[in-house]
Each structure stands twice: as structure tokens, then as C-alpha cells.
Amino acid sequence: MSSHPKVGERLASIKHVVLVLSGKGGVGKSSCTVQLALSLVNQGHRVGVLDIDLCGPSIPRMLGVESHQIHQASSGWVPVYADPDKRLSCMSIAFLLPSRDSSVVWRGPKKNAMIKLFLSDVYWGELDYLLIDTPPGTSDEHLAVVEYLQEWNPDGAVIITTPQAVALADVKKEINFCEKVGLPILGLVENMSGFVCPHCTECTNVFSTGGGEGLAKHMDISFLGRAPIDPNLVMLLEQEDKTLVPNVNEPKENEDAREKTASIVETYQRCELSKIFSVIAKHLEETLDEKATAS
């Protein structure tokens, strides 16, 4: 008999469940989750993003849906959609807080209960991918989500790191965590691998480069790709109007003259990083296909 039958019911309509992990904070894990989601949507998939970073939820703000509210339907909580075509949906505790500045001061049991509620009560509908954005570390949230999902065999985890040694040391602990709990590792992304100048487009290795790829080879993990820091992406994720095409070279007073799109899905395609994450998303798909063939 199933330990968490309602979780199984929700996952039945989802083809792939992928956790996004990193043992280190500040490596851009949430921004990578968002870019991975946008890239998969642009490749024709239906994608949901579950934000279980309960103390620091940032996915709604990055997707431009922070002011939205979730609704209760007979089938469960309805996630918030970030595009008119309803191909990209999101659920986060941020939708339940009174303001952006409200803190979540919870001990482990309450966090676990909230994560179980998200997994069992959110009606995602038919999805190709459910990406689960997690907080840094290997603590309550990680143990809870793995426990509730384990019975239903989640596809695995994508590990995010930056190139420098201090980040790699903590990411090794995250890899060790995955091995201990039996969570397959689908691949590793080296984020912040250089800085793209918005004026000349030259890439400077601010935090060095190649550390993530070296770790992947050392740990025998698939390397999905590396992504530099792009000021235009930062601008897109921080601006309130996600339909404005970001251009850090454009004076702020000329904002009205900036090009507009239909949604963040289309706007993201105008960022240079979208080309890189499109390749990363395809590598992820290939890894999942190989995994399915092997099983």
C-alpha cells in the first residue's frame, strides 16, 4: 500500500520530475531553474515549477507573477501561470505570504507538512516536466521532498555550481547526499562561468572557469553545460514588466521605447543566455531519454 497516495495521484499526470539542487547558496540555482523551465517551454513542453525554498522563495518574482494569488478548486490548488498559453505554471509559498518582506520562521515538521501539501494538493494537470527548486544545503526540505517522491521514482537531480573551489566543496556534499538517498544525478551545470560585457560582449572569467566541468568528470557525472553572467538576464529577472526586452545599454528614461513581447517566455528568447540554456535543456532531455531506454 502506498505511503503517500495523494502524491502519487498528482504525479501520475507528470512525465518527468526533476529536482534542482546545490549544496552552496548564491550560485544562481533559482535563476537556472527559471531558465531551464523557459527553455523547455520554448521547445514545446508544458512545465511546472515548484518552489520549495520556503524561507527564501524567489521563483514568483523572477517569473513576474509575485502579485498573483492561487485559487482553490474542487481538484486542488490551481498553480499560477506565467504565460498566456498556460504552458508554464508555478507554485510557491510566496503566494501565501502577506508581503514580499514577510519571513517564514518554521521548524522542520511544519516545513515538511507544507512540502507534502504542495506535492499532494496542487493540481498541475498534464505536464511534461515538473522542476522542483530547492534551498541550498541538505536539510529538512531536501529530506522531505525525497521521502515523499521516492516511492514514485523521480527522474533525478540537476546540480548547479559555480566554478570556484569554495562552491565546488559544498556541491560535493550535495552529490554525496544524492548518493545516500538514492536520488539519480542527471547532470551538472556550471553557472556564472564568466561575465559577458554588455558593451563589447567579451566574456571575462570573474570566478575562473572549468571547475564545474572538472568536478563532473571527477565524479563521473554528465556535464550539461556552462553559463556566464549576463546583465540582460539579471535585468529581465528583476524588472516588474517581463514583456519588456532587456537592454542594459538603453538609458532608463527610454524605457517606453523598448521592444515588448507577449510574455516572459518570448522575452527570454531575446537574451543571449537562452541559446546556452536551450542546449543545456536538450542535453537534459537526451539524458532522460537514455535513462528511459536503459530501464
Describe the structure.
The structure is a single chain. With 295 residues, the protein is an alpha/beta fold. It contains ten helices and twelve strands. A hairpin with a 6-residue loop joins β5 and β6. α1 packs across α4. It is globular, with a radius of gyration of 19 Å.
Strand elements, count: 12
Q: What distance separates the N and C termini? A: 24 Å
The number of helical runs is 10
Strands ordered across the widest β-sheet: 5-6-2-7-1-8-9-12
Helix percent band:
25-40%
Low-confidence parts, pLDDT < 50 over ≥5 residues?
Answer: none
Q: Secondary-structure element sequence?
A: HEHEHEEEEHEHEHEEEHEHHH
Task: Classify the beta-strand content into a percent band.
Answer: 15-25%
What kind of sheet is the major sheet? 8 strands, mixed
Overall mean pLDDT stands at 93
Structural Rg: 19 Å
Helix/strand-derived category reads alpha/beta
Shape: globular
